[in-house]
Amino acid sequence: xxxxxNLQASVEGKEILKGINLTIGKGxxxxxxxxxxxxxxxLASVLAGREDYEITGGxxxxxxxxxxxxxxxxxxxxxxxxxxxxxxxxPGVSNTNFxxxxxxxxxxxxxxxxxxxxxxxxxxxEKMALVEMDQAMVSRSVNEGFSGGEKKRNEIFQMAMLxxxxxxxxxxxxxxxxxxxxxxxxxxxxxxxxxxxxxxITHYQRLLDYIVPDFVHVLYKGRIVKSGxxxxxxxxxxxxxxWIKELAQEEVTA
Amino acid sequence: MSEVLNLQEKLVxxxxxxxxxLNGQAQTPVHTIRKQxxxxxxxxxxxxxxxxxxxxxxxxxxxxxxYAFNNHTTSSVTKSDIASFLLPDVEANVLVFVxxxxxxxxxxxxxxxxVEVMPLAEAFKKKTTVVEKHFAKYALxxxxxxxxxxxxxxxxxxxIEIASGAVIExxxxxxxxxxxRSQSTFAPARNLVVVGTNAEVTIVESNHTLVSGExxxxxxxxxxxxxxxxxxxxHYKVQQDVEQSYFVGALHAEQEAxxxxxxxVITLSGGIVRNNLSAVLxxxxxxxxxxxxxxxxxxxxxxxxxxxxxAVAHCTSNExxxxxxxxxxxxxxxxxxxxxxxxxxxxxxxxxxxxxxxxNATVNTKPQLEIFADDVKCSHGCTSGQxxxxxxxxxxxxxxDKEQARALLLYxxxxxxxxxxxxxxxxxxLESIIAERLHQELVS
Lengths: 254, 444
Description:
heterodimer; A: alpha/beta; Rossmann fold; 6-stranded mixed sheet; 4-stranded antiparallel sheet; 9 helices; 12 strands; 40% helix; B: alpha/beta; 9-stranded mixed sheet; 19 strands; 38% strand
């Protein structure tokens, strides 16, 4: 699905990613953990195509194609979805109209005709249920006046509507209470399939109780310093990040 | 300057010619005001950019043209000339004025209970008491040259009187056509709208210029509006004119207790467009709303000057003007809030937001607050900038291309103003024009 090789990126001349190597297979869930400032969100942004970052080295191949060459919209149409850490409020654009435009762009890219209004509404209804969103929320302007939890549910709702192949959840758990967290995680789990892959970026292990990863990677100072199974997350939870920092230090000095 | 004097001198001559044609109307109180206004206009002269109120709007290009004046014939304009200017699919009172004269054959007046509608020229004779009570009482021309000029030439326009308690569903459409096809023409018009206690009415005002060759049309429409206690007026001004058009106009309202004025001014094109708007909140609990959208490109200059004048306590004014400026267009916003000493418990809000689509577009925005009462809530704010990059990225990350994302955001930005138009057919028509325009601008 996705192969990241020696990816390096900087912002305003400051190197943030210092050589990431990561391979994500079909149907897999990978968690990327790490302390604040380790480069987690930068990685998510670079994969989604945010323009503030300069790619200084490495490659990213998504389904056999050079992802870094694609515009953000081309990536979205190819099936990359970023659930934003801070979803943007867009006054005056209703969720429904926005999603209709987005879904039809993705369909066009896949050689499909625009959806019939009725089919679209049915699809909306079905996906709304996944994240327990009601009609009132969907009729409102995109994220306008939404609580933190509502914004994150809306991200997962959009993900459900766009049916991506690779979803990147950037700290989707931040700012969520336990009930909202369960709703969001439940939505993600229901969307899980053998054909789709997910990257869960999180600071805390808590989310991984509900979205169980196949692999856990620890990012520190722009590099993946340790990879393991789901138990690694529990170990991090128990021991904190300090031992990882020491581990990284040893590697550098060794 | 000599050219300027030429137009001013021509106007003086035209005034004398006009007086000679007044027949018996020359001795009326209204005409006394006209004469005073003419004297005042010649004293003041056309405003230049040295006048604070005209600092950013240079009308010298307007003034230097050689204009013909009202030739008192309207027959040059046909129904097909104005077909596209009319509101679609709506039963309305339509009053068409060609170069300032009432065009009866192009107009449609529905006979309705509670409504008295006629050309102002007719109202001067038939509604003398009402006219004399209100004429030139709200459009204060003494220190405003352009208002003085309009007052001096206040011969015709629309007269609309809504009786107490009458709620009129069908809108009034006042259409001012400047026919400058055979020669550049100056077309003044003057409206008087009197809305009775508990009455409600909707008025749409639009102006269009027909030109050919190098000709320019100069249109000057002033409306005076009085809202009695608890009256409601929805006033929508739609400006989508040709490049070779100049428009200087005003709406001056007087609001009695708990009356509501909703104004929306939409400017989509034109040469130089200047709109003055004022409401005096003269009765307790009066409520005024000023909304404006200017979506302009090319070399269009659009200037909105507004005044919310809180004269008494417990009134509210709410103002939002938005601009989307492309190419070399210029926007001017000057919003003044006046809170007089008696106007305690005033709520006054004002905001002006602009998006500049081109490095050559400019906007000059100036809020002015003059507050002489101490127990009030007033706020103002203005912004000018580009579209928010993060919002564009968010939409692109969902599969919309850059142009679509920008168009959607701009459409939503404009939508905050168009949604204030309660007349469905007009709102939908404007929304589709705006959508089309944004699409074209972003593709080109």
